[in-house]
Amino acid sequence: MHIETLFRALADPTRLRILRLLDSMELAVGEVAQVLGQSQPRVSRHIGILCDAGLAERRREGSWTFVRARSGSTPGGEPSLVPHALRLLEEAENADREFAEVREDDRRKLAEILEARESEAQAYFSRHAHEWDELRRLHSSDEAIESALAEALGEASLGRLLDIGTGTGRMAELFARRADHVVALDKSFAMLRVARAKLQTLPAEQVELVQGDFASLPLPPASFDTVLFHQVLHFAQVPRAALDEAARVTRPGGRIAIVDFAAHQHEELRERHAHAWLGFTDDKMHQLLLEAGFSPCETRALEDGELVVKIWIAERDNEARKAVS
Fold it and tell me: Minimal CA–CA distance to 106: which of 18, 198, 7?
């Protein structure tokens, strides 16, 4: 990063406000424009300058573009100056009354956006609550499943965690404080909006929401220490393809945790809830894991419902694939 480029990018009051906003969370470009009271094209130009200077980064999610403060090193591998710039802006807000007043107005408008996100999420829950409640009545409580999963994962740090099929974002929320960084991935834009509302109180640098399919993850190889499928794999037409992708992005020695149903005969779930698989036997799951390159190491069962919930834990092992070849 050239220092003069960085200071040119910061030499504008609108861009200072934008960067200060992005210190708190990832925002859609339209949301930034709404806070600033400026046109979206104008705000997009300012964001482009911040991105070119390595201070921010954009990503597409359907027709929306989201922007966040850049974390980590620059694309060229140089140490990032973003944390220093953010600290400087925080100090400036404490020292400059005029800037502080502008920021107070920005915070008020941002709070309105966050409230709107929450309202949208609640509306989504209201529309689908009866479907989820119908399924929940068939198995152990969410609290019991979450407790069993947390126990199965142990107390050590989860490192970089990938939550595949994050849905409402509950798993990402539950384990964020035990992970160095969480990527919450879902194919559905609607679910990502719900997850964003749930996760918006967590530090922006700790959680990242990504749109993508579990059969073709838009993520680099060997980049996660823990990969989680929570009540997701039964939607996969080809579970092996999803697990192959999970193996690709899991570091050697990393772990995968799969929470799903044991094999059952509730055929109505295919029609009502689009389940492609009516659960999995232990033998089937172990075969899938071994073929994908994982070594199964623990299985737990929660049996206090019509549907038995299983938790399968396995470790990424480069020798696992050879064991079945």
Answer: 18
Residue 188 tokens, joined: 């559905």
User: Which residues have a Cβ under 8 Å from the Cβ of 306 and sit 6 or more positions away?
Assistant: 138, 139, 264, 266
Enter the tokens of residue 107. 């915070």
- Report the distance separating Cα 312 and Cα 20, nearest Å: 42
Nearest to 55 by CA among 24, 35, 81: 81
What Å distances lie between residue 26 and 11, 32, 268, CA to CA?
22, 10, 39
CB contact at 8 A, 182 and 109: no
Distance CA 180, CA 161 (A): 8
pLDDT digits (tens, 9 = 90+) for 238-269: 899 999 999 999 999 999 999 999 999 988 88
Rounded Cα gap, residues 136 and 128, in angstroms: 13
Amino acid identity at 148: A
Q: How many CA atoms lie within 13 A of 160 on its CB side?
A: 15
Amino acid letter, residue 180: D
Region of 45 please: left (phi>0), alpha (psi -120 to 50) or beta: alpha
Taking every pair of Cα atoms in the chain, the longest distance, rounded to a whole number of angstroms, is 69
The larger pLDDT score, comparing residue 319 to residue 312, is at 312
How many Cα atoms within 13 Å fall on the side-chain side of residue 76?
9
Checking DSSP bridges between strand 207-211 and strand 181-186, what pairing results, if any?
A: parallel
The pTM score is 0.72
Structure tokens that stand for 176 in this block: 């964020």
SS3 call for 282: helix
Instruction: Tell which residue, 185, 42, 202, has the closest CA to residue 114.
Output: 202
- Beta bridge partners of residue 296, listed in sequence order: 314
